[in-house]
Amino acid sequence: MSIRWGIVGPGRIAAKLVSDFAHVPDATVLAVASRSADRASAFADKYGIERSYGSYREILADADVDVLYVATPHTHHLAIGLAAAEAGKALLVEKSFTATIEGAEALVDAVRRHRVFAMEAMWTRFQPAVVAARKLLDEGAIGTVRSVQADLGVTRTFDPTDRVFAHELGGGALLDLGVYVVSFAQMVLGNPTSVSALGSLEPSGVDADATLLLGFDEGRTATLMCSLHSPMPGHARIFGSTGWIDILPRFHHPNSFVLHRQGHDSEQFDLPALGDGFSHELIEVTEAIKAGRTESSVMPLDDTLTVQRALEDALGQLGVRFVEEPADI
pTM of the entire structure? Predict the structure, then answer.
């Protein structure tokens, strides 16, 4: 049984992801859709995709497409996702899942009501190094986990025409980069009980950078940073009662981590990803659909909602609020 994929939004991320289908058994990319027929056609020609569509409505109407990978701007995820759920299409939605918690809750309600598979494309959770580090945590390799530190920053020149800086498209550091550090902390520590945020804004009104302190039960904490204007290493560190684990840069798609335990020499584990690293989440979705599952146990929808809620709390403290925009379906 081959699962047939459609790409919605043939941009930079989709271009990186599509090549990794070579490493995914029982999966083919059948179609691509854009609001520009020329753009969709060019993407299809470049990557050998059979069908291209100049509207999202057309790919939703294609009965041969089983699952959609949605890589449009954040504020368009909700409208496309709702229409896909109504059409019975499974979904892999690029992070962040939506632009608002209200939108995320609406989309999760829709996919659960229609009983279609959906997952946020948080590739970090499926990287072999992260999977192995989580196993060590579960085995108590560093005792009781107490705190997490993580950072992720890039240097971008402000450009009001760039999606990353556009308020109407859900731009800013938190939804693009902060989603990684918050999701990592939530993966390790569970659901935060408090969110404190400081940061600065771009001229367009989106967040330029942010530092977050998340509180968890039993006094556990996460200190997280993200920025569009600082070249941070992309390092994550998990502290326990008997040691710590360093997820080496860049932690959101790492090849290695180091285990430090009291009374032992440090141990480095090298576990490179398959292909460019997108293959692991694609395999997860493909296998889940084949098995008739509607959620991933590694990246469940409840985790997505928790992360989205924390991001919205932080954005609100910085004075940023987004509105989900209707997409051209």
Answer: 0.96
DSSP β-bridge partners for residue 91: 68, 118
> Between 128-138 and 179-189, two packed helices, what is the crossing angle to 10 degrees?
30
Scanning 19-127, the segments in alpha helix (DSSP H) are 37-47, 56-60, 77-86, 101-114
Q: Hey, where are the domains in the chain?
A: 3-122, 128-272
C-beta atoms surrounding 292 within 10 Å:
8
Asked if the model's pLDDT at residue 135 lies above 80, the reply is: yes
What pLDDT, in 10s, does the model give residues 281-324?
Answer: 999 999 999 999 999 999 999 999 999 999 999 999 999 999 99
- CATH fold group of domain 3-122: Rossmann fold (3.40.50)
User: Alpha-carbon distance 28 to 8, whole Å?
Assistant: 15
Rounded Cα–Cα distance for residues 92 and 21 (Å): 14
Domain 128-272 CATH (choose: 3.30.360.10, 3.40.50.10960, 3.30.420.40, 1.10.490.10): 3.30.360.10
DSSP assignments along 64-94, one per residue: T--EEEE-S-GGGHHHHHHHHHHTT-EEEEE
